[in-house]
Specification:
The complex is a heterodimer of chains A (about 350) and B (about 200). Chain A is of the alpha/beta class. In chain A, about 40% of the residues lie in helices and about 15% in strands. Chain B starts with a helix and ends with a strand. Classes of the chains: A alpha/beta (about 350), B mainly beta (about 200). Chains A and B meet through helix 1 and helix 2 of A and strand 7 and strand 10 of B.
């Protein structure tokens, strides 16, 4: 039995007791750092497709995997997310709206806003939009996105080409980047092959090289390359070097290393350490923004934090540099006072 | 408090001290139990002193059903201590977010000490050969293929049987291990057994 699964089980039994404490910060090399998790999910179980429900439920220990609905909704609620933020020492978290009916389901902008409003001092959000009937709905979807972004805590846009089934280099969708530039709101983009059922694995949907045209066409738009191109299906670094090259070349490109460093996606931690080593080597520490892709399962945020701290220590990050990764770069990019 | 109550029950009982781990020759024994997360019924009959045949059905939270037929053989180590070895074949049906279905084979070993209070420790290994549908989606279209996946359920129980009457016995146990190759939160059960006269 792995230690993480023991901790997970204990966390499950203790879920209600961890949601009330104040964040304590993240300890790094003897220094307590302020931290923000820029990649968190909320949602309703019933809006997740069955194949993805199974994928998620299999991450719970028996017998919680038999009836995962209640536990999942508890973990995905504002209270559950804040409980995990507290447990991992985080000040702030960012919830993503998701419109991916083919894969992970739907968490509407309105639902995300309702969750943020339950913990306005702890949660921000990224808005999203449907693209599956883009030819007819482009105008109304962009208007809905703009409306959601008027909420003071909705600070960016979330896109995932592999989940939403549109090519990264399809100019028909560049109006999203144009709007983001006009509103000065960053765009987070999933890059790399996803492990979820219903995602597309072909390069135009996963390889960030296909984003370069949009990046150069919209210099006023900030592009955050989620998962730094990690190939989750093969558990390989995937398009990491492309992401590093784009971040090094363009001022409007940033990196985010969520999910890939988990025990499931990188069992030995070797890939996660390599990513932080390469970011350090390329002088891109000012370009990487921490996110976990939680809450996934109870105790995940704390587990991911410890693996991140270990990876940064192994790569020689100073406490000041770790502070940039854990919160400083987020504040600078999203204009949030910390 | 519970142990005091149980001791009181034991002192009142006129139970014999034959083992409750397996029925004696000619005996039929049935146990019903409930707990977290398992509820079930196990019946056994010993046509002779060598072996007993068993039938067992149990459910976890009414989302997973396991059923098995088996044989078990008692081995006497001493006047008090005995070992019970069991083999079984059966099936599993699980529905909900994580569906499972398939055939299961298992083996179990139990060591126990007979007496007015009968402690026991058991280890089991059950192998499930699950049939699963795999749906692959791509830009070219969807495809469904069938595959077989083997899952193991391994673990142990630490329990005590408390004879309440000559033909009735209480069974309390803690269980831990893995189910379908995944860590399982430790469970407990409270059971009541009844058996015929020898």
């Amino acid at each position: 039995m792995s230690k993480s699964k023991c901790l997970m089980a204990l966390a499950v039994l203790n879920i209600g007791a961890t949601g009330c404490s104040d964040p304590q910060g993240v300890e790094y090399d003897g220094v307590v750092l302020q931290a923000v998790d820029m990649h968190l999910h909320t949602g309703e179980w019933s809006l997740i497709p069955p194949s993805t429900q199974q994928y998620l439920a299999e991450r719970f220990p028996f017998p919680l995997n038999l009836i995962p609905e209640a536990l999942s909704e508890s973990a995905l609620s504002a209270e559950g997310v804040v409980g995990q933020l507290d447990g991992a020492g985080y000040d702030l978290g960012v919830l993503f709206a998701v419109y991916a009916p083919h894969s992970v389901g739907i968490a509407t902008n309105e639902y995300v806003i309702s969750q943020i409003d339950e913990a306005p001092n702890r949660l921000y959000g990224l808005a999203s939009l449907r693209v599956d009937q883009w030819e007819s709905d482009e105008e109304s979807e962009l208007l809905a996105l703009e409306t959601a972004l008027q909420h003071p805590s909705m600070i960016g846009i979330k896109l995932a080409h592999t989940h939403q089934h549109f090519r990264m280099d399809d100019p028909d969708y560049y109006s999203i980047y144009e709007l983001a530039g006009e509103l000065q709101t960053p765009v987070y983009l999933h890059t790399g092959a996803s492990p979820f059922p219903g995602t597309l694995t072909d390069a135009p949907y996963t390889d960030p090289a296909y984003l370069e045209e949009a990046i150069t066409s919209y210099p006023d738009t900030t592009f955050i390359l989620g998962h730094v191109g990690y190939n989750f299906t093969k558990k390989e670094l995937g398009s990491l070097e492309t992401c590093l090259s784009l971040a090094a070349t363009y001022d409007n490109v940033y990196l985010e290393p969520s999910a890939l460093g988990s025990s499931g996606s990188d069992p030995t931690g070797e890939n996660y350490r390599e990513i932080f080593r390469r970011v350090h080597e390329e002088g891109l520490i000012h370009k990487i923004i921490y996110g976990s892709d939680g809450p996934q399962f109870p105790g995940f945020l704390a587990s991911y934090t410890s693996r991140t701290v270990e990876a940064m220590l192994a790569s020689g990050y100073t406490a000041e540099e770790a502070q940039m990764v854990l919160s400083g770069n987020f504040g600078a990019v999203f204009g949030v006072d910390l | 408090m519970i142990s005091v109550a149980l001791l009181s029950l034991v002192s009142l009982a006129q139970a014999d001290e034959s083992s409750w781990s397996s029925p004696a020759p000619g005996q039929f024994q049935i146990e019903a139990y409930s707990g977290f997360p398992w509820h079930g019924v196990k019946a056994s009959y010993a046509p002779n002193s060598e072996v007993a045949v068993t039938g067992h059905i149990e459910t976890a939270r009414f989302r997973r059903l396991e059923y098995r037929l088996g044989i078990q053989k008692p081995w006497s180590l001493s006047e008090r201590w005995s070992v019970l070895t069991s083999l079984s074949v059966g099936g599993v049906n699980q529905w909900g977010a994580v569906p499972r279905q398939g055939a299961q084979v298992g083996a179990e070993l139990t060591i126990s000490r007979s007496g007015r209070v009968e402690p026991y420790f058991s280890l089991h290994d059950r192998e499930l050969f699950a049939i699963e549908a795999v749906e692959t989606q791509s830009a070219e279209g969807d495809e469904t293929t069938w595959s077989s996946t083997q899952y193991y359920s391994r673990g142990g129980s630490l329990g005590v049987r408390v004879p309440l009457r000559e033909q009735i016995c209480l069974d309390i146990a803690l269980q831990g291990g893995f189910v379908d190759s995944s860590f399982a939160i430790p469970s407990f059960k409270l059971g009541l057994s009844w058996r015929t006269d020898s």
